[in-house]
Each structure stands twice: as structure tokens, then as C-alpha cells.
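Whiteboard transcription, Tuesday session. T.W. wrote the C-alpha cells on the left side:
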């Protein structure tokens, strides 16, 4: 217990230090590398208490999905990642169509009569969340991939392996467990607007289905991380 507490405190301090200084010593903004390091440290800090609570609650490692991957699991993870990427793409289209059909000076995206894009008012409402700048160096890409892997592992451990199964045990209903855990998963993404959270909800439903099929944490965590990388890469390319 003391060792766990020491690790959590160390990672918390590391997270705070990187958050303040980054790679540039700037107290105001973090560099992309520092942002990745903060995400890795934060996800590890969150995963350790979840594992501790789950084990103290009587869940075995097997119940949490720590199974040896089978040859077919790689294919399942790839299929799941394509499906969750499709969910993200659907939300992106919804965002575009939402802007297209808005009316009024604040949200005018319609083309002018000469075929040129209409000017957007200076007071137009910004997106609730912006993509962080991308570090295109080899180290930057490596840290970004590591951050997505840590994020996928932490969220799947918390939402699917632990929360979904606990809700199933408490309610006796798979439907309630899936919808409840997925709703919490979507609500936790407070940086998105309603359209973004709707996409995250669909994202979570697909991963919940993958969890029920495989009961393997590595599979859904890999699918989650790969899906996030594909969606982020697509959005970065659009910018």
C-alpha cells in the first residue's frame, strides 16, 4: 500500500512539474512533448487506484481482462478501431452539417452567390475544444503514441473492465450496465460539445461490444488507442 501511494505521489509531482515547465520553460503553455508526458503520467496515476479498488473489491485479474492475447484478437482490435473511427467520422460530418445549416450572422457558413465561401463573423462561436499542436519529430510521434496507449488502457480499464462489470453485478442487467458505463464515459469528456459527446457515446458502445465479445482488456485498449490515433491524425490532416 505504501509503495502504491509513493508511486502515485511521484507521478502526480511529475505531472505537475511537466505541466508548469514543459520543454521550453514557459509557464503559460505546454509544448506538444510536455502535453504527451502529462497525459501519460495522468493516465498512469488514474489506473493505479482503479486496479487497487478492483482487486480490493474481489475482482480477479482474469475478470479485469488480463488475458493472454490470442492470434485472432489482433484482427478483432483492428476491426473495432475501424468501427470507432467511423463513429468519430460520423460526428465530424454532423459538425460540418450543423454549421452548414445554421443561419444568422454568427454562424453563416453558406457560400455566397459567386461561389466563394462567405465570410465568417468575427464573433462566431468557437469550437469547445481545439486539437493540440503536433510535434512531427520521431520523439514527438513516439510520445503521442505512448500517450494514446496509456489513455486507451486507463479508460478501458476504468469504464469497461471495472465499471461495466460492477454495474452488471449490481443491476443484473447487461443493458443497464452497457448504457450506464457508456454514459459515464461520454460525460467524462467534458472538453467536447454535445455532438462530440454523442460520438464518444457511440465510440463507447462499440468498445463495450468488443469487451463483451473478447473479455480481453488488451484488445479493447489497443482498439481504443488505434481509433484515437486514426481520428486525431485525420483531424490534424484536415487542419
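and on the right, the sequence the group agreed on:
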Amino acid at each position: 500500500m505504501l509503495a502504491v501511494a509513493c508511486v502515485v505521489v511521484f507521478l502526480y509531482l511529475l505531472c505537475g512539474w511537466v505541466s508548469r515547465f514543459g520543454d521550453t520553460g514557459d509557464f503559460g503553455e505546454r509544448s506538444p512533448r510536455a502535453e504527451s508526458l502529462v497525459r501519460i503520467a495522468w493516465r498512469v496515476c488514474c489506473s493505479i487506484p482503479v486496479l487497487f479498488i478492483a482487486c480490493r473489491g474481489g475482482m480477479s485479474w482474469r475478470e479485469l481482462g488480463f488475458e493472454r492475447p490470442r492470434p485472432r484478437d489482433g484482427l478483432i482490435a483492428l476491426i473495432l478501431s475501424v468501427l470507432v473511427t467511423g463513429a468519430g467520422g460520423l460526428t465530424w460530418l454532423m459538425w460540418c452539417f450543423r454549421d452548414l445549416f445554421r443561419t444568422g450572422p454568427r454562424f453563416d457558413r453558406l457560400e455566397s452567390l459567386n461561389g466563394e465561401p462567405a465570410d465568417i463573423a468575427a464573433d462566431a462561436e468557437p469550437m469547445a475544444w481545439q486539437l493540440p499542436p503536433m510535434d512531427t519529430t520521431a520523439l514527438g510521434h513516439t510520445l503521442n503514441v505512448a500517450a494514446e496507449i496509456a489513455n486507451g488502457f486507463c479508460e478501458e480499464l476504468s469504464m469497461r473492465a471495472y465499471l461495466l462489470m460492477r454495474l452488471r453485478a449490481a443491476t443484473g442487467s447487461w443493458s443497464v450496465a452497457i448504457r450506464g458505463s457508456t454514459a459515464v464515459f461520454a460525460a467524462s469528456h467534458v472538453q467536447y460539445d454535445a455532438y462530440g459527446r454523442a460520438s464518444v457515446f457511440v465510440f463507447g458502445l462499440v468498445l463495450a461490444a468488443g469487451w463483451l465479445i473478447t473479455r480481453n482488456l488488451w484488445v479493447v485498449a489497443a482498439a481504443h488507442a488505434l481509433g484515437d490515433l486514426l481520428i486525431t491524425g485525420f483531424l490534424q490532416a484536415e487542419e
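Someone added at the bottom: The chain has one domain: 2-105+131-238.
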